[in-house]
Protein: DUF881 domain-containing protein
Amino acid sequence: MTGPPTGGTPPRARSADFLTELFRAPLDPGYAQAARRRVAGTPERAAWRRRTARLVRLVALVVIGFLLAVAYRYATAAQPQTTKAKAGLITDVRARRAAADALQKQADQLHEAVVRARDAALADGAESARLRNLEAATGLARVQGDGVVVRVSDAPAPIDPVTGKASGTNPGRVFDRDLQDIANQLWQLDAEAIAINGERLTATSTIRTAGSAILVDFRPIMAPYEVQAVGPGDLADRFSGSSTGKRFHAYVDAYKMQFSVERRTGLTLPAAVQPQLRYAQPPQSSPPPSSPAVPSASGGRR
Structure:
């Protein structure tokens, strides 16, 4: 029986299992060496990366600044032209309105001259008075008398709690239908003549909205709106107690709309613009229809 060998090489130890070693050291030694070499060269590469990033940021800032400068230049260059065009339009509108007012004043003077000539030509004073009363009733003559002034204006615009600016939606704004309701109620209460901001109403007058403006017979009027009416002495009290007056008082409480009814003496309402007259034309003469034959007494025809 032989014993263990003496002297010579020691027996080889058995290595660990391959999977156990793989999970214990998953990284290949070559990766560790490459990482050590990368760390050794990090300062130079990091400095190069910092310089590159700084250069990129500088170029981006220069480009953004250039774009902002170009946009600002275009905006400031277009603003004077826009302001100049707007100022020119405003000046043109004011000039045309002044010219229209001058022509209307001249037309009123000519109308008064025609009325004086007509009254002088009429021998009958009663007939002249009747014509004047008809003109006053139709709105074609200036009238004076006691009556009422109904004043209405927009409520202050509500403030937006988020932006702190005036809101674009104003429930207390005066619309054309509001002035229509006031005028119709005054007519119903026996008003003899009505004018809105100096524009006399007739049977063919229109009150409508164009954009954000209210037009009376195609002439713009601005707030506050004053509806003047000549009529009975109790016209103010009757209007305040009417359904329209109560509704506008409710608007005051709900929307802070400005509304007032005031009795006034010695009101003077201007004449309305002369309307374009249209005359009826008789039909063209045609031969009379043939009369039917009259039967004879014997029942036959002659």
